[in-house]
Amino acid sequence: MSSLYLAAGLAGRTASLTSSAIRDLLALTARDDVISLAGGLPATDLIPIDRIAAAAEAVVRRPDAVQYCETSGHRTLRSVIAAREAHARGGVPVPVESVIVTHGSQQALTLLAQALIDPGAPVVVDEPAYTGALQVFSIAEARIESIPITDTGMDTDELERRLTAGLRPAVVHTVANFHNPRGVTMSEQRRRHLAALADRYGFWVIEDDPYGEICFDAMESGIEAPPLPIACHSDRVIRLSSASKILAPTLRVGWFVAPLGVCAAVELLKQGADLCGSSMTQLMAAEMLADTTWLDAHLTVLRREYGARATALTSALAAEFGARLTVSRPEGGMFAWASFRDGTDSSELLDSALDHGVAFVPGSAFASAAQYRHSLRLSFAGSTPSVLKEAVRRLGTAHSASARVL
């Protein structure tokens, strides 16, 4: 963070704070002439505005919708989440008391970091990693250790080698389904392995799962949905999720499911942070999530449309760049990961891309390793197929212009 924002008298931890590259890009991409493939924003045209309005109308006159609720969240919503989580775990019951509702899943991650991580404690993340997690763990003054992520998720064999050599993390954080930014899904074998390591070495696993229900390839090509959650294999797993990607970010409804001791600690921290969340938006979310007939139909639309957008993006990239660029094939979520094979530095390309009206996130925003400077994350969720094709055309023009300068 620039010293412009730091004044005398601030706590020492603020000196090491840096702004998220993705959040900074949002300001640059607010221009009407820029097609943004940068932010992980759900498609505005697919947000169910009419259903949200109906949910608001259904709850706004309830006395409990306009009053404070429990710090842990409105029990109506927690009950709905517990039932959905039990379904995700193959029918294993989930107590309502193990659900904490937060102001988006980012607050859940922040509170968990406060509850579980002492300053200087090691925390393991994927490499490349979700930038929001890196920011949270940096603020918690953790010592961040990165484990490479492969096409089948975090390399748990490498994690085991480091554990055997003496690494003792407080927390291991991973995005197991449709990873941000890599787009891959952790295999069942690695989920079981990670859970077994957590049991053996006594660390917590934070299983971050905002995208798990956007599994569009299962609809189109018969590819199996993601395996059962890591939490099915160990009691040392905390699962995070959110309504932002399937309903609307503006609801600011996130949650986590954890052992009761963790929930109790986080509830105390949350009392000091915000007392409680919004009863109204929590009841709106509960009303929509409990309407399974509507929700199933809505998710079917999301999966179909996001699948079409992912195909449009990856096909356009293949046509524009050919062998110069390797591109992941998304099976769900919101992101494709690409890497140049011709030596292109994606951070340098970004300047040219913005000049040509297109934005992405360079790989260096997600990891410090030099190998990621040729990579970039592209979000296909927010644009229609025709706009995505135009974005790739602009990216190709920017790449050619950048190469001429070099």
TrEMBL record:
<dbReference type="InterPro" id="IPR050859">
    <property type="entry name" value="Class-I_PLP-dep_aminotransf"/>
</dbReference>
<keyword id="KW-0032">Aminotransferase</keyword>
<dbReference type="InterPro" id="IPR015422">
    <property type="entry name" value="PyrdxlP-dep_Trfase_small"/>
</dbReference>
<dbReference type="Pfam" id="PF00155">
    <property type="entry name" value="Aminotran_1_2"/>
</dbReference>
<protein>
    <submittedName>
        <fullName>PLP-dependent aminotransferase family protein</fullName>
    </submittedName>
</protein>
<keyword id="KW-0808">Transferase</keyword>
<dbReference type="InterPro" id="IPR004839">
    <property type="entry name" value="Aminotransferase_I/II_large"/>
</dbReference>
<feature type="domain" description="Aminotransferase class I/classII large">
    <location>
        <begin position="33"/>
        <end position="395"/>
    </location>
</feature>
<dbReference type="InterPro" id="IPR015421">
    <property type="entry name" value="PyrdxlP-dep_Trfase_major"/>
</dbReference>
<dbReference type="GO" id="GO:0008483">
    <property type="term" value="F:transaminase activity"/>
</dbReference>
<dbReference type="InterPro" id="IPR015424">
    <property type="entry name" value="PyrdxlP-dep_Trfase"/>
</dbReference>
<keyword id="KW-0663">Pyridoxal phosphate</keyword>
